[in-house]
Amino acid sequence: MEHAATTYDAKIDTSFQNDFYDDEGWWALTWVQAYDITHEHRYLVLAESLFTDIASGWDRTCGGGIWWSKSRDYKNAIPNELFISLAAKLALRTQGAASANYRTWAELDWNWFHSSGMINDRNLVNDGLSSNCRNNAGTIWSYNQGVIVDGLTDLYKLTGQHDYIDSATRIAKSAMSSLTDKSGILHEPCEPMCNVDQTQFKGIFVRSLVSLNQIAPSSDYLQFATRNANAIWYANSNLHHQFGLRWNGSVDTVDASRQGSALDCLNSAMRLGSKLDG
């Protein structure tokens, strides 16, 4: 965790806040994880500070929810999914009134998200809402499915209410069957021309299956992760064990985003019990 400490020390004076609430959400979840590993309270304090700023992005436009950015021109899935997960994680790591406040926020935002229309009739999350507060039929990204699955498992851990796991299971299984190519390999709509953010998305989804499987085990998750991990290892790896964008194809370009996404899948497959060859 030396890198976490170095990053913290380098930026703490200038803050990890910016104009986009989803960016702040990713940072906050990173600091929660740093706290879990090191038990250094300063990381939890930073996550709580970021939470406070993100919560200021909530208003009653479209009935509620966090805006994507501080310009307040788009309400979409990812900042709210991250906020739900963050609020639930903080509730599980704090006590008393603070924990109760985080739980209230997690439940409030999920209740809004669930009723907002962003989850379509296929149990998949579209990108966001239109200006008239309807599902905008935006791109169905794999990471939007994964982040809300993770948030719902956190809500279950917090409350013990099985409705959260039921929703997570529906979304996860719909994504596994709908967001894949003919070989059952996870595929983003932008492939092969994804940007540096989009190349990371698939790993985030597969990673969420680990937390879901811990609560509601299913062999489907192991089979899915193993199939994708084998594709990465045998079809999408070069001699240096570097990985590309298309998990069922040859390596295109090597970068940290592609590598991280593939490693998320490989690690998740092993955590789910896969015995990968090679």
Automatic annotation (TrEMBL):
Organism: Kutzneria albida DSM 43870
One Pfam match: Glyco_hydro_76
GO annotation, biological process: carbohydrate metabolic process
InterPro entries the UniProt entry points to: 6-hairpin_glycosidase_sf, Glyco_hydro_76, MUG_Protein
Protein name, entry field: Glycosyl hydrolase
